[in-house]
Design a protein that fits this description.
201 residues, alpha+beta, Alpha-D-Glucose-1,6-Bisphosphate, Chain A, domain 4, eight-stranded antiparallel sheet, globular
């Protein structure tokens, strides 16, 4: 079950990380771990206008359509609010034959068209005796900037899962999972940002 925990951790770390697609260019990817906390930083260039990329990344009603990792994403509160929203995500991650489904709520803080900050929060109506949170801590951020005719995306995340991930197995499996899954998702972000149909190979 160790790789299952690592796969679930990767699932939590994979909200459309900016890696390479066909036209998107991967600039760097770094995954570190301190204790049970993971740190991810990735830089990428997407060949689409800044505001269009922002619109795609902040559209949680349709975010699950861009990657097979997310089974469901939706806005719970603040659909028309341009500054804050509460969103729900359900994702499934697998490594080898071990799979886990993760559910969580994020509070989005939006600064159009350059900044999206997501903080994991307790489910609406949760009480002290509720089920444990799906993440002990999670903070992710997309920072967008114009670069020539495209968009530079800096993605950073700090996350601590509520389950134990083995020190030796976890980082390797998590990084491999991220590298194998995010590229196709970012290609679809680019397709949608350019107004093209989203395709799955």
């Amino acid at each position: 079950m160790r790789t299952g925990a690592a796969g679930a951790a990767a699932c939590l770390l994979l909200p459309l990380m900016p890696l390479a697609g066909v036209a998107a260019e991967m600039l760097s990817l770094k995954v570190d771990r301190e204790g049970q906390r993971y740190f991810v930083e990735s830089h990428a260039r997407i060949e689409a206008p800044l505001e269009a990329v922002y619109d795609v990344l902040s559209d949680y009603e349709h975010l699950h359509e861009l990657t097979s990792v997310f089974e469901e994403t939706r806005v719970v509160e603040g659909a028309d609010d341009e500054q804050q929203r509460l969103v729900y995500l359900r994702a499934r991650g697998c490594v080898l034959f071990f799979c886990r489904t993760i559910e969580r709520y994020d509070r989005l803080q939006l600064e159009r068209p350059r900044d999206i900050l997501a903080l994991a929060v307790a489910p609406p109506g949760a009480t002290d005796d509720a089920e444990p949170a799906p993440v002990a801590y999670s903070r992710s951020r997309w920072q967008l900037s114009e670069e020539d005719d495209g968009t530079h995306v800096l993605y950073s995340m700090e996350m601590e899962p509520p389950f134990w991930v083995p020190p030796l197995v976890g980082p390797w499996a998590v990084k491999r999972k991220l590298a194998s899954g995010a590229g196709d998702a970012v290609q679809r972000v680019e397709q949608r940002a350019l107004g093209h149909p989203v395709t799955f190979d």
